[in-house]
Amino acid sequence: RGAVSSRELVKVYGSGPTAVRALDGVSVQFRAGEFTAIMGPSGSGKSTLLHCLAGLDRADSGTVHIGSAELTSLNDTRLTRLRRDKIGFVFQSFNLLPTLSAEDNILLALRLAGREVDRAWFATIVDLLGLRDRLRHKPSELSGGQQQRVACARALVGRPDVVFADEPTGNLDSRTGAGVLDFLRTSVRELGQTVVMVTHDPIAASYAGRVVLLADGRMVGEIYDPTPESVL
Ligand code: ADP
Ligand code: ADP
User: What pLDDT, in 10s, does the model give residues 173-215?
Assistant: First the structure.
């Protein structure tokens, strides 16, 4: 249901002599219920891969499967629906709506989809992420770490099959970061979610069951049961 895979994914930015081959034929698989970290040097294509896997960006060639759906064959309407129903995405830059409260940001997508809000699950997420007394605040009234946690809550509240997270702990102090990672790990275990997280932090990566290594737009290795030392 929540398996994710790509085959020979290619993404080129620009054209001519200045073109950048951000993805140069990436074939990678993420099993349902697996928690994977993607690591690699800055510019190696991590964000581009995440965006293409999540259907936020279209690759130039190659295929992406989420469950039984092949993203590159879907039109925009179907792609939007698949993203809404199956995928949660934590953006590096949060992408919160400035005029809405934290609570409304977290629940907006469910409301737009006409889906019922599971208040117990909402409360669990809010408590685990330490957001209970911040729900009425607007993003501008929250610290970077709090905004990051709102972005995580928003991605998880609909219990998506697949969660993509771009540097989810990049703006958090280590204790709050550990809380978010613990929560992701628990959520994977209890809901059977597939989580794919981009990070450059070896400690964050050690929460995953597997690390996939990228360099120059290619997958160059993988490490199972990573420790902070083994991925440095
Ligand atoms: P990473 O996440 O590993 O830092 P990115 O996926 O952000 O890598 O970028 C991979 C390469 O593609 C880099 O050379 C980057 O400069 C380039 N790139 C990424 N996004 C764009 C864009 N929108 N336009 C042009 N080049 C881009
Ligand atoms: P990261 O390296 O962590 O992926 P970046 O700062 O490289 O983050 O990228 C942030 C945003 O800027 C992304 O949406 C990416 O697509 C875009 N971007 C990255 N490199 C370029 C570039 N050379 N030209 C235009 N946009 C870029």
Answer: 888 889 889 888 888 888 889 999 999 999 999 999 999 999 9
Q: Ligand 1 centroid vs 45 CA: distance in angstroms?
A: 6
Determine the Cα–Cα distance for residues 21 and 14; give it in Å rounded to an integer. 9
Which ligand places an atom closest to the C-alpha of 56?
A: 2
Decide whether any atom of ligand 1 lies within 6 Å of the 199 Cβ.
no
Residue 42 Cα: closest atom of ligand 2? 2
Q: Measure 48 CA to ligand 1 centroid, in angstroms.
A: 6
55 CA to centre of own chain = 12
42 lines ligand 2 (CB under 6 A): yes
Residue in 151, 150, 159 with CA at minimum distance from that of residue 132: 150
Pairing outcome for strands 194-198 and 162-166: parallel
Give the containing element (helix H, strand E) for 87.
strand 87-90
Query: What letter does residue 57 receive in the DSSP assignment?
Result: S
3-class SS of residue 186: helix
**Which residues does 88 contact at the CB level (< 8 Å), separation at least 6?**
154, 155, 156, 158, 160, 162, 163, 164
- 140 in ligand 2 pocket by Cβ < 6 Å? no
What are 76-132's pLDDT values in tens digits? 999 999 999 999 999 988 999 999 999 999 999 999 989 999 999 999 989 888 899
Closest CA to 178 of 120, 218, 130: 130
CB 47 near ligand 2, within 6 Å: yes
